[in-house]
Specification:
The chain is mostly beta strands. The protein has helices spanning 94-101, 269-274, 353-362; strands at 18-22, 44-47, 50-59, 62-72, 78-83, 105-108, 132-134, 137-140, 161-166, 171-184, 187-190, 193-194, 204-207, 235-241, 244-249, 261-267, 284-291, 297-302, 304-307, 325-330, 335-341, 367-371, 379-382, 389-391, 406-411. It contains three helices and 25 strands. The protein starts with 17 loop residues before the first strand and ends with a strand.
Length: 413
C-alpha cells in the first residue's frame, strides 16, 4: 500500500478531507458487486496523456473511495467528446456508449428526466436537463430551472451551465442559451425550446430528428417553477417539412422525425400562435446555442459549477453525503480530471458537494463541475491492450444505470 498522504489546507472554508491512499492499479480494480480493491498501487497509463488511479478519502461521513481519470489535453492525440446513444431522448450504460464510440474511458454526464410518477400515463423521456453539443453541433437546449432533476442548484447557477471543450481545444465552464426563432408570414415568433423534455409556459419548442422517437407530451407538463404541476390542456403541434407546414394536431405526438422535418410544439400562448399557421404555409425555423463567453464548442454538456477560480461558489451543500460524479479543469483548460465516487457498501458514505469541490481543488483543478450522481455514477476505462472498457467503480445500484450522455476520452491511433 502506498504511504498515507495528507494534504494540508488553509482557511476555514473547507471540510477536512484527507487523501489516505492513492493510485490503485487498473487491472482487477472493479468487478461489479465485488468488494473494493484492497491494495493501492501505482497509477496506470491508459494511453499517452490519460491516467487512471484511485484515491481513498476520509470525509465528514467516513471513508470514501474515488476513481479518477486524469486527461492531458495538451497531448495532440487526446480529446474529449460527448458520449450519447444517438438521440437526445434515449439512454444507455456508459460502458456501452464508450465502446460504441471507441472511447478509452469516460464518466456519466448530466442529470435527466428519469421518472414521471407525478404525471400518470406520461412517458419519461430520459432526456438530459441541460444543453448538449457534439462535434460542434447543438443537440438540445436547457429546460427551465424548476423542471430539472437533481439536487438544488447553488445560488447564481442555472440549467444553462455547461462543461465543454471549445474550438481552441481547451476545457472550460460556460453557459449556453437558446437562440432561435420561427419565421412566419405574420412575423417572427420566439423559440422557447429545442429538443428538451420541458418547455417554458406559453412557449414554442422545436423538435428535430436528434430528439428520437419518444413522445413529446412531456414537454407540455409542469411549469417553470413546479415540475410536478399538471400537464397543460392547451397544446398544439405543427409539422414543418422542407420549410412548409404539412400537418397539425391538438396533441403532441411521438415517433421518428425525418432529417428534413421540424416539429413545433406549443403550449398556452405558444399553442395559440401555432394555430394560426395553415397547411402549405412557408415557415422558417432557426435555432442554435449561444455561449456566454462567445466561444464555439466542439462538445458540451450540462451540470452545475462547484469550483470557480479555485474557490467553491457560495451555498454549496456541505451536509448531504452521496455517491457523486464530477469533472475538474486544471492548467488553464489543458488538463481535465474525471472523478467518480465508489458506490460499494464499504464506501457508501460518499461526499458532500462541498467535499467534491475540495477534492477537485486538491487534485489541482481551478474549475469544477458537478454531474449526475447516485445510481448514475459510473467511471469506465480500458485495461492496457484491451479493445473495450471496464467499469472501474462500483455503481451504487449494483449495476450500471442507463444514462442520456457522458464525457468520453478519446485518443487518435
Amino acid at each position: 500500500m502506498a504511504h498515507p498522504e495528507q494534504l494540508d489546507r488553509t482557511g476555514p472554508r473547507r471540510p477536512v478531507l484527507a487523501l489516505l491512499a492513492s493510485c490503485a492499479a487498473l487491472a482487477g480494480a472493479a468487478v461489479i458487486g465485488a468488494a473494493p480493491a484492497g491494495a493501492a498501487q501505482a497509477a496506470v497509463d491508459i494511453a499517452p496523456g490519460v491516467t487512471y488511479r484511485t484515491l481513498d478519502l476520509t470525509a465528514g461521513a467516513g471513508a470514501t473511495r474515488v476513481h479518477v481519470l486524469d486527461v492531458d489535453l495538451s497531448e495532440p492525440k487526446v480529446a474529449l467528446g460527448l458520449l450519447y446513444p444517438g438521440a437526445v431522448a434515449a439512454r444507455a450504460p456508459v460502458s456501452r456508449l464508450a465502446d460504441a464510440q471507441g472511447a478509452l474511458g469516460g464518466v456519466n454526464g448530466d442529470f435527466f428526466n428519469i421518472t414521471e410518477s407525478q404525471h400518470p400515463g406520461v412517458e419519461a423521456t430520459g432526456a438530459a436537463v441541460g444543453p448538449a453539443v457534439t462535434d460542434g453541433r447543438a443537440l438540445k437546449a436547457a429546460v427551465p430551472k424548476g423542471q430539472r432533476f437533481g439536487p438544488a442548484l447553488p445560488p447564481g447557477t442555472s440549467t444553462e451551465d455547461v462543461f465543454g471543450v471549445a474550438g481552441d481545444g481547451r476545457a472550460r465552464l460556460d453557459a449556453l442559451s437558446l437562440d432561435g426563432s420561427v419565421g412566419t408570414a405574420e412575423g417572427t415568433l420566439p423559440l422557447g425550446g429545442f429538443n428538451q423534455y420541458a418547455l417554458p409556459v406559453g412557449s414554442i419548442g422545436a423538435f428535430t430528428h436528434e430528439w428520437g422517437e419518444v413522445s413529446r407530451v412531456r414537454a407540455t407538463c409542469g411549469t417553470d417553477t413546479d415540475r410536478a404541476a399538471p400537464c397543460s390542456t392547451d397544446t398544439y403541434e405543427v409539422t414543418v417539412r422542407d420549410g412548409t407546414v404539412v400537418s397539425a394536431s391538438d396533441t403532441p405526438g411521438s415517433g421518428a422525425i425525418g432529417a428534413d422535418t421540424t416539429v413545433l410544439v406549443g403550449r398556452e400562448e405558444g399553442a395559440a400562435k401555432l394555430r394560426k399557421l395553415a397547411t402549405g404555409e412557408a415557415v422558417r425555423v432557426a435555432y442554435g446555442l449561444k455561449a456566454a463567453s462567445g466561444a464555439a464548442y466542439r462538445f458540451a454538456l450540462g451540470g452545475f459549477p462547484v469550483l470557480a477560480g479555485g474557490e467553491p461558489p457560495a451555498g454549496l451543500d456541505d451536509r448531504t453525503s452521496a455517491v457523486r460524479t464530477a469533472v475538474g479543469v486544471a492548467d488553464g483548460g489543458r488538463r481535465v480530471l474525471l472523478l467518480a465516487v465508489d458506490g460499494s457498501a464499504a464506501y457508501r458514505t460518499g461526499l458532500t458537494i462541498a467535499e467534491v469541490a475540495d477534492a477537485l481543488d486538491d487534485l489541482g483543478a481551478t474549475e469544477g463541475f458537478g454531474l449526475d450522481g447516485g445510481g448514475s455514477t459510473t467511471l469506465v476505462a480500458r485495461e492496457p491492450g484491451s479493445s473495450g472498457v471496464t467499469v472501474r467503480n462500483h455503481p451504487s445500484g449494483g449495476a450500471e444505470r442507463p444514462v442520456p450522455n457522458g464525457i468520453g476520452v478519446f485518443a487518435a491511433s
